Amino acid sequence: MPTKSPLPRQPVRGSATGRPIMALLDLLGRRWGLRVLWELQEGPLTFRALQAACDGVSPTVLQQRLKELRAARLVVHDGGRGYVLTEAARRLQPNLMALHDWAEDWAKDGGSEEQE
């Protein structure tokens, strides 16, 4: 059974109202969703190049994620160049980098608070 692409203002996992943040977290939390966006930040990739960049994700899963990301208007297919991020996805990138930086700091700290 095909799954519906998570979009703002439509019910998604964790939110019956489809709050935009919940729709985004549902979309990015799906297997390989965030990784696809991450790999496309350097520029366009063909399907096969994207599959290789994503450590050999299965073609079926990659096709489903691309379908969802296209429905969410975060990725488009640009003919011969392959898949590229939209302007909306490029505006998301600094926020993802901030999360990346935070996660790196968190990892350096051991990922948990000191227990007293």
CATH class term of the domain at 34-101:
Mainly Alpha
Number of strands: 2
Based on the coordinates given, report the CATH architecture of the domain at 34-101: Orthogonal Bundle
The stretches of 5 or more residues where confidence is low (pLDDT under 50) are none
Q: What is this entry, summarized?
A:
The radius of gyration is 16 Å and the shape is globular. Helices cover about 50% and strands about 5% of the residues.
Structural features, described:
The chain is mostly helical. It has a domain at 34-101: Arc Repressor Mutant, subunit A (Orthogonal Bundle), CATH 1.10.10.10. It has helices at 20-29, 33-40, 47-53, 59-71, 87-108; strands spanning 75-77, 83-85. The longest helix is centred in the last third of the chain and has 22 residues, at 87-108. It starts with 19 loop residues before the first helix and ends in an 8-residue tail after the last helix. The model has no long low-confidence stretch (mean pLDDT 89).
What is this structure's SSE topology?
Elements: H1 20-29, H2 33-40, H3 47-53, H4 59-71, E1 75-77, E2 83-85, H5 87-108
Antiparallel strand pairs: 1-2
